[in-house]
Amino acid sequence: MDDMNNLGFILAAACRKHGAAVAIEAAETKLTYDALLERAMDVERALIAHDCRPDEPVHVLVSSHPADLAGFLGVWLAGGVVVPLHRTSPASVIDSVQGRSRARLAVDVADSDVVTLIGETPPDARAQLDRAAMIIFTSGSTGVPKGVVIGHDAFNGKLRAIDAMIHFRRNERTLQLLNITFSFGIWSSLLTLIGGGTIVLPQKFVPALLLEQLRNERIHRVGVVPTMLRAMLAVRAQDADGLTAACPTLRQILTGGEQLSEQLATQVAQLFPDTDLVNIFGLTETSTCDFFQFPPDREANPHSLGLPSSNVQFRVVDELGAPCEQGAIGELQIRSPFLMSGYLDEPGLTQAAFSDGWFRSGDLAQLDVDGQVRLMGRSKELISRGGNKVTPMEVERALKQHEAVCDCMVVGAPDDILGERIHALIVPNRGCAIEADTLRAFLSSRLDRFKMPDFIYIADALPIGRTGKADRRELRNMISGGTLAPLAGRS
Questions:
Q1: pLDDT classification of 419: cutoffs 50, 70, 90
Q2: For residues 384 and 412, is the Cβ–Cβ distance under 8 A?
Q3: Class of domain 1-378
Q4: How far apart are the C-alpha atoms of 368 and 362, rounded to whole Å?
Q5: Dihedral (Cα; 84, 375, 254, 73), 10-degree rounding
Q6: H or E segment to which residue 436 belongs
Q7: Has residue 491 got a pLDDT over 50?
Q8: What does the domain layout of the chain look like in residue ranges?
Q9: How much is the pTM?
Q10: Helices (H), 167-308
Q11: Domain spanning 382-480, CATH architecture
Q12: What is the predicted pLDDT for the residue at 142?
């Protein structure tokens, strides 16, 4: 394809421009830009030999193989649509995705047969996939994954907007810990390559090895989710080398995917005093990265999302779609040229996701006095306790102000009397004990009585979902399954 907004055209042009420079580096492998393009053209030829049709969905299996992005590029060069899937995904998951994507071709650059047939006939052309770059399957609130269709124009536009905020430079090295089945890992990888940098791949995420790599290797940027930051800090707490980590080349820590607490941000900033911690908010459906919170933004307003990226508009509205007044809680909605084309083959779900051209994020938010956005939780996580609406985040913020609380997670769970009760899981700071009565007395001056946790649990870490993020659904499952013993019962 020769469309200048096509991601394949853009990435192939970068490969030709940077040629002999190292594009991707792993433990025992260095893949140049020339070699990356050559591998991608092998994929392209194999797909054409299998009669890959324009805008045909193609499964691309990935993990931490140095040539995985050649799979993406090869599909785009052949005119197909990338459907990223992890190599370790259970067969039932892959079959479920195939049932929705209707893909007949799969690419695995780690296999001797780079392209395999997984279906008998090409799927019918779908207008929704016209000029589509990717179909990214995300976890739905019902547990059924949704296929988010992202166009070349939209994603390329968002890549430009992201780069205008955080500036990927030639010869910079990005340590890539993030999975490229998810948007965060995809855009950070693509921008590194388009900018002429090098992607550095670890074998796996090990907190102690990560700290060692950041200190001893030339790394300019790393992308992480807050769960990874907490794991690093836990390792660092056992390290006697001091309170800071000397990482002379580390310019940026990019974090997103889950909420970054003020306490965690402060601890990370203390550990890496010469590095910018950039907190990013966005959704797969918006091509990610709608807000950026840089260190000066955090100092001025630690609870805000920070600055919107270029061409991103936002509003906070009530249940009737009317703009909320300052301080009132409503739904955050986003409008930009970078929104998804829709949910794959789900016209009803797609229509429900928009309101007059605004994407309904499902996030509860409020506007601060300076017009910036403060997140208050997910609307589907809203707890209704005795008719009173409570957002998990406001309870979590109060809990995190207690000196003994390292981290916490709050959810609602069904109750025969009040509809739902409030359950709080707390990870104590090292060497600290949590006493229920003391904690309740502390919260009583910070929360209305109906917002007080009914049940309190203690654990060494927050429950983690399959994506590696702290996951409220996992906590709900633990509560419903009776695997947690409450520290204190109903108030």
A1: confident
A2: yes
A3: alpha beta
A4: 19
A5: 20
A6: helix 436-444
A7: no
A8: 1-378, 382-480
A9: 0.85
A10: 183-194, 207-216, 226-236, 262-271, 295-300
A11: 2-Layer Sandwich (3.30)
A12: 47
